[in-house]
TrEMBL record:
Keywords: Signal
A Pfam family assignment: Fimbrial_CS1
Keyword Repeat: no
Signal peptide range in chain numbering: 1-24
Keyword ATP-binding: no
Protein name: Cro/Cl family transcriptional regulator
Gene Ontology cellular component list: pilus
Organism this protein belongs to: Pseudomonas edaphica
InterPro entries linked: Fimbrial_CS1-type
Length: 172
């Protein structure tokens, strides 16, 4: 009996520990990163380029240009950078499939981008900091032919931008 009374406090402590862990919260966080060891393209403030943007529409003039201040990052500021579109961007009406598509224009550093031809960015045309970041440049997305749209609705589309480092060139 005396032995049982001695074990009672240990039993109570152990059951208290088990009860406290039964009420514990546990979570797992999946962490991912897309890593390119040669290039990066971010907003000028260091944030990612938005995955989704909302273009404003004015009934008198059409879609307003959307401008993002951006910076290029590279591990080799002596190599040309090549930028192009993966496809010709356009907006399609998601609420009325019979509405005409709205072609978009995309430009970087004031030069229109194309899906058929690379824009060659000579690194000597940019100012680079010690970390391989360029000065801020504008990426502009706009309605290809400015004007009023004929059909109301929700429009959606994709701009696929491809940037590569030209391995064949080195600028002194």
């Amino acid at each position: 009996m005396k032995k049982s009374l001695l074990l009672l406090p240990l039993t109570l402590v152990a059951s208290g520990l088990l009860a406290s862990t039964a009420n514990a919260y546990e979570t797992d966080i999946v962490v991912t990163a897309d890593v390119d060891t040669t290039l990066g393209f971010m907003q000028a403030d260091g944030n990612e380029i938005p995955k989704t943007l909302e273009m404003s529409y004015l009934p008198t003039t059409g879609l307003k240009d959307y401008i993002i201040r951006t910076k290029l990052y590279t591990n080799d500021t002596s190599k040309n950078l090549l930028m192009r579109l993966g496809s010709n961007p356009q907006l399609a009406n998601t609420t009325n499939s019979s509405a005409p598509v709205v072609p978009l224009a995309v430009s970087f550093m004031g030069t229109k981008l194309d899906a058929a031809k690379d824009l060659t960015i000579n690194p000597s045309n940019l100012i680079w900091d010690n970390d391989g970041a360029s000065q801020a440049q504008d990426l502009k997305i706009s309605q290809a032919t400015q004007g009023k749209l004929s059909v109301a609705g929700r429009y959606s589309g994709n701009v696929n931008l491809i940037i590569t480092q030209d391995a064949s060139t080195t600028t002194p």
